[in-house]
Amino acid sequence: MRGTVFGIRKALAVEVLNSYTHAATKAGIGLAVALTLPIGDTDMSRRRMVYEGKAKVIYAGPEPGTLVQHFKDDATAFNAEKHAIIEGKGVLNNFISEYIMKHLNTVGIPTHFIRRLNMREQLIREVEIIPLELVVRNVAAGSIAKRFGLEEGTALPRPIVEYYYKDDKLGDPMVAEEHIAAFNWASPQDLDDMVALALRVNDFMNGLFLSMGIKLVDFKIECGHVYEGEIPRVIIADEISPDSCRLWDVKTGQKFDKDIFRRDLGDLMDGYTEIATRMGVMPEKSVARPTGPKLVH
Length: 297
Fold this sequence. Notes:
By secondary structure, the chain is an alpha+beta fold. The chain has helices at about 10-25, 30-35, 90-105, 145-150, 175-180, 190-210, 260, 270-280; strands spanning about 50, 55-60, 65-70, 75, 80-85, 115, 120-125, 130-140, 155-165, 175, 215-230, 230-235, 245-250, 295. It folds into two domains: about 10-125 and about 270-295, Phosphorylase Kinase, domain 1 (2-Layer Sandwich); about 130-270, D-amino Acid Aminotransferase, Chain A, domain 1 (2-Layer Sandwich). Helices cover about 30% and strands about 30% of the residues. Strands 8, 9, 10, 11, 12 and 13 form a six-stranded antiparallel β-sheet that branches. Strands 1-2-3-7-6 form a five-stranded antiparallel β-sheet, covered by helices on one side. It is globular.
């Protein structure tokens, strides 16, 4: 139970858990199962899985044009060659991603986010995913530092946008605009819209994280189409969380993101907890996890 209510303010945790306890009792299912469902939806037969990725599961939504995005506790690196189950990670990513997506929607940057349903799930718009990942880099770190022999932490002269083709079997290779056009992964207009969105997100999140004493080193986004009549519109999809960003303390350079797991730098939950704490989506003193990460072979 402690991992489930990890870091949520006591009053909110009590309210939410009471709702799920009542729902679980009424439906005759366990509380652990009820916690994966939106309040009022305890009929397991109504949940149809649409897609399962490394860190999330997507279910059919309660209404046409909606989906339910479930955040798992899985942590992966190096195209899932390294894999562990870290209790409470999915809960924190859900709350952190909700915070960021709500702010993006507020400032007019369109996303698939509708609302958070429970500790681990969000209601999102159904999106026709464009098979590209856009990485926006502000500071040299990770692969760009290795490719160009840059010292990690070097500020880049301008934000750099890179494209990667979404295909786990191929290792999500980096591609150029010529590849995108030749293989028709996205139209020229789609690509212009995606880059414009990525740079707007970068501008906004730079200021958002800087106000918390955090440096936005780089981040990954995915986009997709929603249709307004017969006209497709490009919006932000997937998630924005410490799984998809590099986030460093402005003063010390301490890492708060998935590099902690990639590079064996300590406890991943410590970094994610610090981000959530600075965002104000969890109390200053968090509940300690009863066990460490569970390695998956």
